[in-house]
């Protein structure tokens, strides 16, 4: 039978409460008393990338020791010049609900998005996008027998969602990016194919009926929609460059096969936080 | 810029106020607990516990020692900014809607809502330097405006009190006698409830925001209408930059836009206008709900917005903001 020496002065170098506590006996207050059993909190300061790690130890509800590693990127946002009084206030103790704040609390976070002071745009002017002649809404009526819709890449008539060759893009489609591209909310939506809300049932589909009646190089035209506002022509040049020779201006391909490859590869491609829609574009009939 | 998001409030924000030195930001919300944050990195410093109703307004003394808050629980409380301790509580018979310290922090103007048979009123209370000497007696009580008085502030040199509210009329009162000195003209003034009022840094002019989708700039002495800024949404909050000639408006959702086009989130924006040219410079998006509170840091290099979504967004401007031109 062991004698537990509580005086702290005896042979036992362990701290007084060395016997194992049953978790049922632990309550909120006890948790704090046991803090000295935990290794001290470590802060591995910001290194060149600004990555800072804070390693804390806690007891969870079952009395197990838990190690919590919080990794943050420290980034300088602004310079603050504080007056003498302000510097004093910086060292004030926390009070009210902030008393028990720990590193893990996510009350204050830096936005993951870059927010700009967006200049107002005259209605009708939009950032550049490759749009061939072809009113997208007018063509929707010619959708024809479009039965198979893939939710991942948005292509119709090709495969079901479960058979999507771009399955890995599913993660991207899940992310709801509140990106603020382009137009004023008051601008009329028709025919622009970008930044306007087009109900899913009406979104441009893939193959067009009667495209074989069109001229060949126009048939090779590819419309890219759902581009972010920041996309400029050079960006599009670079994006489509790998797929073959293209004509000037919009994304007209010399070879039909190249256009097809561009469509297959880039439709549903995540570019600048948006999923591109790349499909055949049919010029106006007149 | 990368705004700092502060989610300390469970309910919509109602008011934001920076202290004079610009290092602390006080936020009030409908969740009963005003909060103070460090204005550089958004870190929470503390909360003031004691109110039993939505906190509509607050003001901080120039030395950042005293905080005064007005709440729907019919009290206005004085707090020690550093410790969070409640120093005094003024009791009223109706919710308090607006508070403002005078220059010198010796007086405070408080507005109370109409409640049951009571009409709305403007109260002036003396604030003692020593909280133990504080009394509840009013120096002055002004009654008269119909409807709620959403904001009342001290005019230049504490000689006047400027008020505006649900009846859309901006009024200037003499702060010693309580007499009505000036009223805004019905034709040129606001057409709907004035929701917000913000003084310039030097107090010579102020801007009012209204549900009639406009904001107006007025002279503090003569109540002359100087400028009007038009927007598409009802305006809930206004503020002015102390550094550049910019007016910022924050607002709510226009009902007709509810079902159309935009399915994006985070589209409620704070709109920047050129103060003199009355033209829109740009907008800062991000809030998920209407913006209810705006405040500019006295150094003019950052501003914060509080929304119906419970978030406070603290923005430090990029260097190119200071070069922006129409």
TrEMBL record, chain A:
GO terms for cellular component: eukaryotic 43S preinitiation complex; eukaryotic 48S preinitiation complex; eukaryotic translation initiation factor 3 complex. GO terms for biological process: formation of cytoplasmic translation initiation complex. GO terms for molecular function: RNA binding; translation initiation factor activity. CDD domains: eIF3G (cd12933), RRM_eIF3G_like (cd12408). Gene3D superfamilies: 3.30.70.330. InterPro entries: eIF3_g, eIF3g_N, eIF3G_RRM, Nucleotide-bd_a/b_plait_sf, RBD_domain_sf, RRM_dom. Residues 220-283 form the RRM domain. It is found in: Cytoplasm. Keywords: Cytoplasm, Initiation factor, Protein biosynthesis, RNA-binding. The keyword Cell inner membrane does not apply. Coiled coil: none annotated. The keyword Lipid biosynthesis does not apply. Transmembrane segments: none annotated. Residues 1-23, 200-221 are annotated as: Disordered. Residues 205-221 have a biased composition (Basic and acidic residues). Pfam families: eIF3g (PF12353), RRM_1 (PF00076). Its main location: cytoplasm. HAMAP family: eIF3g. Belongs to the eIF-3 subunit G family. RNA-binding component of the eukaryotic translation initiation factor 3 (eIF-3) complex, which is involved in protein synthesis of a specialized repertoire of mRNAs and, together with other initiation factors, stimulates binding of mRNA and methionyl-tRNAi to the 40S ribosome. The eIF-3 complex specifically targets and initiates translation of a subset of mRNAs involved in cell proliferation. This subunit can bind 18S rRNA. Component of the eukaryotic translation initiation factor 3 (eIF-3) complex. This is Eukaryotic translation initiation factor 3 subunit G. It comes from Vitis rotundifolia (Muscadine grape).
UniProtKB/TrEMBL annotation, chain B:
Belongs to the eIF-3 subunit I family. It comes from the Eukaryota. Pfam families: EIF3I. One of its GO terms (molecular function) is RNA binding. This is Eukaryotic translation initiation factor 3 subunit I. WD repeats lie at residues 6-47, 48-89, 142-183, 187-228, 284-314. Component of the eukaryotic translation initiation factor 3 (eIF-3) complex. Its main location: cytoplasm. Keywords: Cytoplasm, Initiation factor, Protein biosynthesis, Repeat, WD repeat. Component of the eukaryotic translation initiation factor 3 (eIF-3) complex, which is involved in protein synthesis of a specialized repertoire of mRNAs and, together with other initiation factors, stimulates binding of mRNA and methionyl-tRNAi to the 40S ribosome. The eIF-3 complex specifically targets and initiates translation of a subset of mRNAs involved in cell proliferation. SMART domains: WD40. One of its GO terms (cellular component) is eukaryotic 43S preinitiation complex. GO terms for biological process: formation of cytoplasmic translation initiation complex.
